[in-house]
Amino acid sequence: MIRPICRMGNPILRRTASDVKMGDIKSEGFTQLLLDLRDSMKHYGGIGIAAPQIGESLQVCVIELEKFNRYGEEIHLPFTVFINPVVRVLAPDETGYWEGCLSVPGLRGFVERPQHIMVSYVNELGEAQELEAKGFLATVIQHELDHLFGKLYIDRVKDPTLIAYQEEFDEFIKSPASVE
Ligand code: ZN
């Protein structure tokens, strides 16, 4: 089911979401939440979405990158469910991308983040997983995980002159790097 998106100003986006209990992962309600996340992400044209964005304060987000090509990076991540994810930075070097967010519609902002991370999480089958990510994918994962801890990308824009409306971004700034 496609759900309405919670936008900046909604306090649910500023809360640390609750851990998902292992016993709940295969429940009907949680399975439906995963379907709703997928449906909503696809409907609104995101490449990732987190549960608080559709009004559920739980530690789960989903990402799908279909043969994405940014900065010449070939990135492919099939639909992946991250439950109770924890990120470890493997190298502190940061690179910036122009990020956007379904909860902050119409805007883009330039955010620098570590570019080599390891994320530990549980998948929809309840299995512990690890994923090493670099570059654009590392940025997408950190953006989605931020939603589980009450943060929005806009909080991480260091230079406020690097915030733009989408149309002005397209007209004056557009680069190959942007994150939905
Ligand atoms: Zn977002």
Structure overview:
- This protein is an alpha+beta fold and 180 residues long.
- The chain has one domain (11-173): Alpha-Beta Complex (Peptide Deformylase).
- It contains 3 helices and 7 strands.
- Strands 1, 2, 3, 4, 5, 6 and 7 form a 7-stranded mixed beta sheet that branches.
- The two termini are 21 Å apart.
- The model has no long low-confidence stretch (mean pLDDT 94).
- The structure holds zinc ion.
- Residues 101-103, 143, 147 line the site of zinc ion.
What is the share of helical residues?
10-25%
**Structural class determined from secondary elements:** alpha+beta
Gap between N and C termini, in Å? 21 Å
Sheet of most strands: 7 strands, mixed
What is the mean pLDDT? Answer: 94
CATH topology: Peptide Deformylase
CATH superfamily: Peptide deformylase
Write the H/E string, N to C: HEEEEEHEHE
| Tally of discrete structural domains | 1
The tally of strands reads 7
The unique ligands bound to this protein are: zinc ion
Uncertain spans? none
Q: What is the chains' assembly state?
A: single chain
